[in-house]
Design brief:
CATH class: Alpha Beta
Distance between the termini: 34 Å
Radius of gyration: 16 Å
Strand order of the largest sheet: 1-2-3-4-6-5
Structural class: alpha+beta
Length: about 150
């Protein structure tokens, strides 16, 4: 959606690092705070947090969705189903009594396109919580949906 309209970013994607991530975040948001390895940025009024560990080759881009005290059992069940069928590279996750949308990936192996896709999917899962619970692009149908298509 909104992220696919961004112009080319001059980033060497052969081995992603904090400097390249910072360049990407600065190119998509006018509101980037933090330091390498721990950023917060806003895209389309959605707060994103990116945490990296270059030593251990890990990265996560997350966005808060809702305090767990406000999440119903049915919503939580739908999140777990979405993790299997509709959230693709992003997962609904719980930490510190908050429901999050999370894209987690080895850092060095990331490409610029994967970072952009991860941000887009986190955005979509955050925005579709409570409705379609979708990362936006593709869905793997449930058995019930496959059965309904055959009838």
């Amino acid at each position: 959606m909104f992220l696919f309209c961004i112009s080319n970013i001059n980033v060497n994607a052969q081995e992603m690092d904090n400097e390249q991530l910072n360049t990407i975040f600065q190119s998509i948001s006018n509101e980037v705070d933090g330091a390498p390895g721990n950023w917060q940025f806003i895209v389309d009024s959605t707060l994103f947090i990116c945490l990296t560990d270059e030593l251990h080759n890990r990265m996560r881009i997350i966005a808060p969705i809702e305090k767990m005290e406000n999440v119903t059992d049915e919503q939580l069940k739908r999140c777990m189903q979405a993790n299997f069928h509709t959230s693709l590279d992003v997962r609904y996750s719980i930490s510190d009594e908050v429901l999050w949308s999370a894209f987690i990936h080895p850092l060095k192996e990331l490409t610029q396109e994967q970072v952009m896709s991860g941000i887009s999917q986190v955005y979509s899962c955050t925005r579709t919580f409570g409705t379609t619970y979708s990362s936006g692009a593709l869905a793997f149908p449930t058995q019930q949906e496959r059965d309904a298509q055959q009838n």
